[in-house]
């Protein structure tokens, strides 16, 4: 298609569009080269004679191959695998009392945004469901410029100081010499490094929890992590931590399910996000603020500038101030999702940084990395990155300059405007961004020192808080994840060193992990600062915050020839009434002929649609069909896995034989379809787990 580039009106205050002039015979679907020359034949290169050599002269071929050869750009050094969507932020109430940021002034006002979710360790082509932290980056296109809130789905981070980031990333990504494992932390170098860095302990607890194996990008929280500032028109600053709360509630998979999802669908999360938006089920999150002042900060047993610490919601409640709705899929993955360049340094008047040393380092890294990734200092002109407000300055030139600035003035101050010529833009002393003038009385200024503040040395109190805020099933998952990951570590010195650290978190946890590894409980690692006990925070538990809802979920129904048409209609209606999608699975994608003689198409073929793709399953087959399915490995596995993944299973008297074959023993999540299956489907059955799997 025609390569038409348009610069956004926001760039340089200039509008400069290349619109191909229409030739006399031109229609919109003319195939052309990048120079606009119409192409007669896109199937055959130019050759000398019918069977002769291809000619160098063939500019159509050369240009096409040249462009193809250069299609790839360096992937992100971290967060390479991502999926994104357009949407908007809608403000509930004016926040003018705490911030002058324009997007927070008028209740009901919508600000466009682009949100990208990502895994951290894997490459761009890696799977969606490894055990990994998820990035949660939001670019708000405000009227006063772009504000990027570049967060994760975990409210704390592995390290306290940006100087450690390259070590963290080198340790966690595939190992330098062998280039494996891809997209996972279960290997020597990560645990070698982490076990030597006690400050990672709190985040490790989160990473080993089910937070890192989310069911859907739509069902996870987001966090700005650092303490930021909001500044109002009078110059008053309030500290803030940003939260995103998913409307669909929190939900994760279980580990065995996450592993099997990697085989069932590499793109499980990407597809889920894309399909839900495509079908009009727009995912939503509420933006929450934790607001506090210096007096509160000074009174805490942790430092609010330390990114390995959180503020429990029970201590500072979250004020929900607006919602983000993602309502449009990107038109082009590369142009938008891949070229999106987020940067925590992109803030607007009314928002400001804190002295968090991790944040301060990030302020450098992102702008810098975009140059090596996108190849030019002009990447801000790409449509996905361009602000939706005027951009006017004296920055000029550089590779891929898309704007055509006019006039002589490319410096400032100048007096050209005084002489009736274009003098260019001027400073904005009142409306411009002015850095909050923080006072230095809290040790925020002074001699140049390579040290950390005293409270940063407490590496265990909040790890312990997290552990004690989890429900028993969640604790078992955390302990088991440590066992799984450390069992993959070959370096003998590493697992005991990690367990020695865990003894500072909780003796019971450490003992369970040591038992699970089959090693002696090592001597406790000396803590740099004695941990304190904090009141448990139920807000940190996923299980305590799951919504008993089927909205946004999918229930699969296994059908076969002869399936009762009326029963299927009743079941399908009640699934849809509960807000879920009903997926029909059959031996053949062509579907099945129901009891009423009508053929119904399937949504998935059984062998390609294992039950880990669904939130609950039901088997609605005749006795004869069930007997046949009981000899089909994929059908038996389908039910067995649903049971193992703690899902509800619906059956009928005729289909129960399949469950028997799969070794499914009825419990409160396994029931006749007619006796409350759809209601039961909104839950996972944690109590079942100890009967089917040994957890640490
Ligand atoms: Fe980072 C990307 C989140 C610490 C350096 N980071 C990146 C992305 C997310 C985060 C979500 C992907 C954005 C996108 O979708 O394009 N990073 C975080 C969070 C951190 C954090 C929540 C701690 C609270 N990051 C961090 C540090 C450094 C970086 C301390 C370096 C000093 N991060 C980068 C980077 C990346 C990046 C190398 C890679 C690609 C990119 O920026 O655009 O600059």
Automatic annotation (TrEMBL):
Return the Basic and acidic residues bias intervals: 1-29
Q: Could you tell me which species this protein originates from?
A: Phyllobacterium myrsinacearum
Q: Which domain of life is it from?
A: Bacteria
**MF terms (GO), sorted A to Z:** catalase activity; heme binding; metal ion binding
As its record notes, the protein acts as a catalyst of:
2 H2O2 = O2 + 2 H2O
Q: What is this protein called?
A: Catalase
- Region annotated Disordered sits at 1-51
EC assignment: 1.11.1.6
Which parts of the sequence belong to the Catalase core domain?
Answer: 32-420
Any Pfam family the entry gives: Catalase-rel
Q: Which InterPro entries match?
A: Catalase, Catalase_AS, Catalase_clade2, Catalase_clade2_helical, Catalase_core, Catalase_haem_BS, Catalase_immune_responsive, Catalase_large_C
